[in-house]
Design brief:
Layout: H1 6-15, H2 22-35, H3 40-47, H4 51-64, H5 84-99, H6 113-122, H7 139-149
Helix pairs in contact: 1-2, 2-3, 2-4, 3-4
Amino acid sequence: MAKCSKAEVRRLRTALRWKIPAAQRQRIQMVLLRESGMAQPAIAAAMGVSLSTVNRAHMAYDHGGIKALKPKPNGGRKHENMTLAEENALLARFAKAAGAGEMLNIHDLKTSDSTVYNLLHRHGWRKLMPRPFHPKRDLAAQNAFKKTAFLML
């Protein structure tokens, strides 16, 4: 573990006054406690974290300075199956039909409905509509029902 100079300790104490995320503030405090002479197990107990968390904060500071103590951003497409370019290429096959006013049948994509809806939303396809009628409908039966269903009222 490298010892900090007085100027670095002063910078760390100044950084605690900045408006920074709580995780970064906690890591700076871990480094300052090390500089005050506390052992790593004592720092872990005082901060309420594991010893490995203290070790990682100290190593990050030793290798990258105060900027390395910033928390890593969360989010993004961690479990993506295709890149955005591959998704564009897939949707390009359906774009011609969609531009002509035809509907895209999501069952042609052979995946779950929610996955398809998320894909279409990501690429700005906005109109999601149910099919206008059942393909096996019987118009004669529908008309007969309309004529006889409401006679009892």
